[in-house]
Recover the amino acids of this structure.
């Protein structure tokens, strides 16, 4: 089966990391890119008041994004990679560990299923 990408969508509950620290969150996403072999193109983030962070790393192969709710110790995580040179599982595993979740709900989607020619 030929596909264009893999997409991990995860809800991380009971996180022990400081979810209100935008530098920590961006650094974790950047490290996830590094271990997965992704090429960072750009970064963006926003620190909400009084708390919560959204961080996005755009990669040549798609994107990684995290949205935090520190008051609920919750992170919505999105890891989408295209092609075969990046390992999205490695990125997801690093982020899961860095965020210290006690419960994880993750779904993996295959994106862009192409017909066999």
């Amino acid at each position: 089966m030929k596909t264009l990408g893999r997409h991990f969508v995860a809800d991380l509950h009971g996180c022990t990391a400081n979810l209100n620290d935008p530098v920590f969150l961006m650094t974790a996403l950047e490290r996830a890119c590094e271990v997965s072999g992704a090429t960072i193109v750009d970064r963006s983030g926003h620190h909400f008041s009084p708390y919560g962070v959204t961080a996005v790393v755009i990669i040549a192969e798609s994107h990684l994004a995290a949205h935090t709710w520190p008051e609920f110790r919750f992170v919505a995580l999105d890891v989408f990679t295209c092609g075969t040179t990046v390992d999205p599982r490695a990125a997801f595993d690093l982020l899961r560990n860095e965020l210290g979740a006690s419960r994880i709900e993750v779904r993996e989607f295959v994106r862009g299923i192409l017909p066999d020619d």
